[in-house]
Amino acid sequence: MLILKNLLRRRTRTILSLLGIAIGIAAIIAFNAVARGFKASLDRYMHSSGAEMLVVNRAAMAPEYSRITKEEIDAVAAVPGIEHVSPGTFTIIAGRVLQKVKSGTKLKFLTVFGRVPGDRLVEKFRPGLDGRLMQAEDELILGSDAARDLELKRDDTLTLLNRTFKIVGIYQSDIKFESAGCVVPSSTVQQELKMGNSIGLAFLYLKPGADWKKIRDSIEERVPNVAAIQTSGFTQYYNQLDYIDWFVWIVSLVSVIVGGLGVLNTMLMAVSERTREIGTLRAVGWSRGQVLRMILSEGMVISVVGGALGLLIGAFGAETLIQWAPRGLDTRYSVLLFVQSFGIALALGFFGALYPAYQASRLSPIEALKYE
Amino acid sequence: MSDAAIRTVDLVKRYEGASITALAGVSIEVERGSFLCIMGPSGSGKSTFLNLVGALDTPTSGEVILNGRPLSKERNLDAVRAREVGFIFQLHNLIPTLTSIENVEIPMMAVGVPRRERRQRAVELLGQVGLSHRLSSVATRLSGGERQRVSIARALANKPALILGDEPTGDVDSKTGDQIMACIQEARKQSGATLVVVTHNPDVAKGADRMLHMRDGVLQ
Q: What are the chain A neighbours of B107 within 8 Å (beta carbons)?
């Protein structure tokens, strides 16, 4: 009764501090959803290859810097338990150098996957393909998002990597950065990037019943230059992705601190304005604990409502922003993220109101009643 | 002596590093169920006396004995105020956003009276002070006299043995002041509580069983 009335009597201030919490929580949700969406896209991409393992250059900090020589790949392929090796290269072309790109397009870059024609990594694009898979050196298949943004269709041409390719097929993919990319013969990428006979990474398909750990040990013993990892562990292996997490949490923390200060300010002002009332409550027998609980509860109500609102704004905001963002970004939510964020909101309400509540509970009834 | 509702023994209160003496040794007994009026000018120490007797403040030295129990031995003065004392302030001190009923419920919340019982008792008490028609009015919409009646009902909420009034008619005109005193007197008669009122208004003293004057922290 008292708690809600106290909050409603200063409606604007309550709403503002509630929004402070909501925006802080929304920032956590939105940033995390996009960061996790990016990681989830990578994981799905790896999974979609159908390969259990991949090898990359051990020294490369990120997969785009990885180089593995043909001799090393041959040595890897000779390891018992490996059924098939699919070599891969990739590069990223800035959207501005692509033909027909209109200003304001969401396609800021085109991911170019170098694949061997006829290989499994190319065959996976067959379902839903409009046209056929590439076979010759001057053919490519284009993702549907890239095709839409570049206003290209089957049998058109696209110039990239100093060559003009014929688009022989448009493929569908639910992995955003793959759908905003294209697949060209690996040899073209190797030539243009002056990679010689090296490739970037290789996907390994294991024989049924093969133990991936034994294969990993065997590969790393024979070819010390490479690291063999499970495709499902890709995002864990490249721990620079953790920097994204840290960045996200740091930005979120700043938003959250601002929200917490909002609650602190609101509750401090509320206590100051209601000094005389608190004196009255104490005079008619309310204990320090009861006054403390009342002020804390007011902070908690702000945080519960603000937190719930923040979850909604965060999810809705991320989905809206992703429509405006460059192609290739995706979102991913988890129950844990919602629970963590709501927990942070509750903690904000509690700690933001704790000091004002303590101040209120320490007021002497006599002094408070005299307060003008 | 055993029937004294209040007994004070050499009650002294000093403020601000002991440079101001508000009460300079007050010893008094107040008979249970009686009406004591203490008159005196502003700053004479009468409010300080009331605050000490009502367990709102603690004395520098001396003792307050309420219903035979020394307050210095009480571990929980909040509970004493909640259960044994009903305050009526000059400025009524109602919570402005709450209705009459809710304001009367406030002391009952302190002692954990269940909601339904609280509401029922608040309605009864407001009826007793003639405010049955103003039960759901927010405090800010009440007249000065009505607000003071709500504060009388609030003072009676936990059936206290002691009602303390600090200039209860100080903020209203004389006609309303008479009505308020009549209301307080009636409430005292019905509840059998002891009533101590401090005032500088001689009209308030009408009907008191005993009247004392206070000057410079001393009862005369």
A: 284-285
User: How close B173 comes to chain A (CA, Å)?
Assistant: 23
* Residues counted in chain B: 220
Contact state of B158 with A285 under an 8 Å Cβ cutoff = yes
Structural contact between residues A227 and A237, judged by C-beta atoms closer than 8 angstroms: yes
pTM over 0.90? The answer is no
Last residue of a domain, one of A177, A194, A224: A224
pLDDT, tens digit, 9 for 90 and up, residues A115-150: 988 888 888 888 888 999 998 888 999 999 888 888
CATH for B33-47+76-219 is 3.40.50.300
Chain-chain contact of A286 with B78 (C-beta, under 8 angstroms): yes
Domain that holds residue A35: 2-41+241-370
Classify residue A121: in a domain, yes or no: yes
Q: Does A234 fall in a domain?
A: no
Instruction: Tell me if residue A194 falls in helix, strand or coil.
Output: coil
- In tens, the pLDDT along A4-13 reads 888 888 888 8
Q: Which of A6, A284, A288 sits opposite B82 (nearest CB)?
A: A284
The pLDDT of residue B1 is 44
Which of B119, B116, B125, B59 minimizes the C-alpha distance to B86? B125
Query: Do residues A201 and A66 share a domain?
Result: yes
Task: Identify all chain B residues contacting A277, using CB atoms and an 8 Å cutoff.
Answer: 93, 95-96
Mean pLDDT score across all residues of chain B: 90
Summarised one tens digit per residue, pLDDT across range A161-200 is 788 899 999 999 888 888 889 999 988 888 888 888 889 8
Mean per-residue pLDDT over chain A, rounded: 86
> CA nearest A2 in B: which residue?
B98
Q: Name the residue facing B110 among A5, A6, A286 (closest C-beta).
A: A286
**Across-strand partners of B214?**
B219
